Amino acid sequence: MKKFFACVLAATLLSATVQAQQVQPIDGIAVVVDEGVILQSELDRAVANIRAQYAGRADQLPPPDVLERQVAERLVLLKLQVARAEATGVRVSDQEVDQAIAAIAAQNRVSVEQLRAQLAADGSSFEQFRDSIRDELLVQRLRQRFAQTQVSVSDAEVDAALESQQATGEQYHLAHILVALPEGATPEQIATGEQKILGIRGLLERGEMDFAAAAVRYSDSPNALEGGDLGWRGASEIPAAFAALVRQMSPGQVTDPIRGPSGFQLLQLVDTRAAGQGGPSMVTQLRASHILVRVDDTISAEQAKAEADTLHARIVGGADFAELAREHSDDPSSQASGGDLGWFTRDQFGPDFGAQVAALADGGVSAPFRTQAGWHIVKRTGTREADVGDENERAQARETIGRRKLEEEWNRFLREMRGEAFVDFRTGAAAEAQAADAAPAETPASGD
């Protein structure tokens, strides 16, 4: 979540907002996306934001027409994801948007009012910023829901990953360049893609461009404008088709073109480092049950507190905690088990929740207290010292495998969603390419 808030301030100007029509003079339509639109002013702001991020490094950006097309595609994907989230029942309340904005302001060490003033000074409206935060939260929740329903990791996969990690003992910093191919690509499209990836490989071999600059200029990946950086990954986070290859590479080395499900790729091993070593790790664990009265669009904080006070009075009067949790708790993950949360570390559910549990004696019941989720009543049922070294190692392996699987499935989902959408570019190079019936992509040449 911290990483999300740290980058969302820079990303928000990429968000296309319908409300912009209400706060600005009507301007031209840059792109029609299904039943929505991206205004030319929104596209211009998004391009300007990318140029600002590359201040002093403008030579690393692609030509203006290519940059505009890349940014337009990003906005199209964002628009499609927001629409899918809303159509499938994903909701973000005004209170959650306020909390996100407050967190962004705090991370930038300013107040919300100072943030508002800063946006105004930069020529951005607070309403547009607020809408873009809502869009980012909607997409984040859509991705979380997708992960819960589409991604699973077996114990056998965790065992294999741990065995591989012990064998290699390394993590890998990777970057890539993607030349995308459409679903059911024709032989001509495949030949054009292969010609382009070979041209990019030639530029790198001749030293005419470094890998990050080539990614910014030529890659079709959503992370192209970040230089194709994939970050640090363990062996279990690398697709099996690439893992053996990566282990044989030296830092700085670039693979030959690789044909994958999404197109042709070049993969660079940026650096390597030793993976963290496991071992005994003793921690204090708590066990508790809770009843949650959620605050959302249908119940106010005052109504939720009143219900929590009533439930607390019944518990004090002798009512069974587990029965009340099964009947009244709004936490679906623990409701069926009478509110039981199992064993957890103090800050696992947040510092506020942990502090309330830690302050109780075993068997004690808290007064109602508030967190971002709503109003809680907690009953502490136990405490212990536990060695979680192996448990943490397995949990980390499960998380990394899940993250790799999610990335693969999510990118496939985005490609399918983009392929099924009606997208009509009205201005710029993208419109010209569309009018020319998908003209061939830019092919790098010597001296480009």
From TrEMBL:
GO terms for molecular function: peptide binding; peptidyl-prolyl cis-trans isomerase activity; unfolded protein binding. GO terms for cellular component: outer membrane-bounded periplasmic space. Transmembrane segments: none annotated. Coiled coil: none annotated. Keywords: Chaperone, Isomerase, Periplasm, Repeat, Rotamase, Signal. Residues 169-271, 283-382 form the PpiC domain. InterPro entries: OMP_Chaperone_SurA, PPIase_dom_sf, PPIase_PpiC, PPIase_PpiC_CS, PPIase_SurA, SurA_N, Trigger_fact/SurA_dom_sf. Pfam families: Rotamase, SurA_N. Residues 1-20 form the signal peptide. It is found in: Periplasm. It is an enzyme of class 5 (isomerase). It catalyses: [protein]-peptidylproline (omega=180) = [protein]-peptidylproline (omega=0). GO terms for biological process: Gram-negative-bacterium-type cell outer membrane assembly; protein folding; protein stabilization. The keyword Repeat applies. Its main location: periplasm. Its EC number is 5.2.1.8. Chaperone involved in the correct folding and assembly of outer membrane proteins. Recognizes specific patterns of aromatic residues and the orientation of their side chains, which are found more frequently in integral outer membrane proteins. May act in both early periplasmic and late outer membrane-associated steps of protein maturation. The PPIase activity resides only in the second parvulin domain. The N-terminal region and the C-terminal tail are necessary and sufficient for the chaperone activity of SurA. The PPIase activity is dispensable for SurA to function as a chaperone. The N-terminal region and the C-terminal tail are also required for porin recognition. This is Chaperone SurA. It comes from Lysobacter arseniciresistens ZS79. The gene is surA.
